[in-house]
Amino acid sequence: MASGTALVYDEEMTRYKLLWVDPTCKIEVPERLTVSYAALQQHGLAQRCVPLPVREATDQDILLAHSEEYLEAVKTTPHLSLEELMTFTQQYGDVYFHPNIYHCAKLAVGATLQLVDSVMTAQVRNGVALVRPPGHHSQRSEANGFCIFNNVAIATLYAQKRHNVKRVLIVDWDIHHGQGLQYCFEEDPSVLYFSWHRYQHQRFWPNLRDSDFDCVGKARGAGFNVNLPWNKVGMDNSDYLSAFFHVLLPVAYEFCPELVLVSAGFDSAIGDPEGHMRATPDVFAHLTHLLMPLAGGKLCAILEGGYNLTSLAQSVCQTVQTLLGDPAPRPGGLTGPCESALESVQCVRAAHRQYWACFKHTVGLIVEPSTKLCKQEEEEDQGAEEEAQWQEPPPRPNPPIRTAAVVPPGARLPDSCSRETGSLSQGAEEALRNMDPAGLVEGLLPSLGNVFTLVDKIVTKKVRNGLALVPDVPSAVSCVVQKVLASGTDRVLLVFLGEGEVPVEVSDDGRVLVLQICTREVEKRKSQYHVPVCLEKTGRIASAFIHAVLSLVLPVGYGFNPGLVLLALGGGGGGVVGVEQWAQLTALLQGLAQGQTLALLQQESGEEILTATVSSLLGGLTPSLGPLGALDPLEVQEVETQRHRLQDKWGLLRTAARSSSAEGQRQPPI
Ligand code: Q9C
Ligand code: ZN
């Protein structure tokens, strides 16, 4: 199983800079790399990564995405005089050349390809490349926006050619539109390109009509270019997470990538002089975490922009620490996206409804794309804005033991836990071996006492997460919820998969929130803290399940911000969920509560589900669901009903602006 996080960096890429006065280019400085790398070292993160040497990209590599003429032109730049460099630079937009930039640009591409090679050959699971110059604005025959060669475009084509990768997802979370990436892949259905970007109705650089939400790709690539333009500045963590829950992730799961490349620009973070957004560095822990269950964990993050050195360094650390598997910080204050963000989300969903099953039910109203500006917004934009201030993200506590289990005796499991009989599959045995021996209560009755001990260890952060096999899940749930609340945990999120009434008191003090996924109608308590979702047991359950998780479970869970997640798989729970879906859910929910998850499984759940749970809690690879097909309209309706019922309380559930007449306000016709 691939493990480890690669870090590709070479100081040589700091050895070029702007040699003349140019206010647009002066922010792209060598210190961007040095502060990022120094922060990784200071936090002990660089030392935990697998260092990979850079290499120079070959002509052949570069020609995957660029013309020969352009490459030959760039090749002349090391020999030009200062004056000639300035003249050469003038044929392109918002970029500068330097005698050493061609060398650095070859290293930036080569660093990216080294990372892709090591991930694709499973030498590491994932990794990050700290590179300069960035790449996503660079086009076939053009330098642009500080970019010389398109690192991520070349890496995509290289992965497809060299490693036979079929589907690549590019997530461009830089605050500028990576038009170079869009142009490279807009006719290509094997590459899904997602970009959010500051747009302001085309008034923000690069001021392209092509960046709007209705540019969805061309010819066979229609539907595989997803643009989410931000028409205001000041977007925050709620806006970014909404974009992931309601735009990127549904499409990404449906697409089922074999590799995820992140155009990781951190000019989308607070304090950045280009982006003017308000998302804090810790949001990148969550964005990263949410992408890690895709593509069997094969994720490469490649640096693009990021011009506030403080914000940049903190954001890079959050990203790398998450790739390393440390628990994400608790996501606080997520009350929901702003109206402008919701308008954008609504528009892009509508523009893509003919291409993706996950959006089929959205109201087809297309809000006119464009440049039309309302006067009011223009004035607002010009208003004085306050200097951004934010706290440095606190250290992320990582308990000494990752996973502990309470396993009862009985025919199947106890022997396996003792590891001598080998009656468990190799995977399960190996997984159990990595657990805390103290948490493995071998040959003992699974008394509630052992479960309570485990709860204490999780709550006091001696153990990060755990699982318990219990004789009766509903009664164990009932006891454990009380125990957790008594232990001083502020809030518990219970995600209950299975039939019947969940025996948990849901009072309006807001300390317990119950999300139930089942196959039969359950009694519906009219509470904002009880969310029942009934999915039919159909062949298309895989689509419906992940749809419910992305559109309902995660938004409510992130808004609720529990101190502990209880994941219960009751009897019959297996009817709702296959082992891959369960593993996805378990992996995704670990973004909450600093990864403090306790899974309760019915004793007689199969070995397969046990193995999957242990593996997921230990941070193992999450199996992919495969490309998802159509969604059952009745199941969509069920999810929509709950979303509409609860969206005033849990703002992250919203997918449309209030001012519009679209899906936010009425039930979609199905
Ligand atoms: N203030 C990257 O982030 N200048 N490139 C825009 C508007 C160009 C950004 C001027 C910004 C290029 C990789
Ligand atoms: Zn940028």
What does this structure look like?
- This protein has helices at 31-42, 59-62, 68-75, 82-89, 101-120, 151-162, 179-185, 237-255, 283-291, 309-323, 339-351, 375-382, 413-418, 426-433, 448-459, 473-486, 541-560, 573-576, 579-589, 607-617, 633-646; strands spanning 5-8, 50-52, 126-129, 168-172, 191-198, 225-230, 259-264, 299-303, 401-406, 463-470, 492-497, 512-518, 530-534, 564-569, 597-602.
- The chain is of the alpha/beta class.
- It folds into two domains: 5-327 and 334-385, Histone deacetylase domain (Arginase, Chain A), CATH 3.40.800.20; 401-651, Histone deacetylase domain (Arginase, Chain A), CATH 3.40.800.
- The strands form two sheets. The protein has an eight-stranded parallel beta sheet with strand order 2-1-3-8-7-4-5-6, with helices on both faces. A seven-stranded parallel beta sheet has the order 9-10-15-14-11-12-13, sandwiched between helices.
- The protein starts with a strand and ends in a 24-residue tail after the last helix.
- The model is unreliable at 411-428, 441-446 and 661-670 (pLDDT under 50).
- The protein binds N-{4-[(3-aminopropyl)amino]butyl}acetamide and zinc ion.
- N-{4-[(3-aminopropyl)amino]butyl}acetamide is lined by residues 24, 94, 134, 137, 145-147, 174, 176, 205, 265, 267, 274, 304-305.
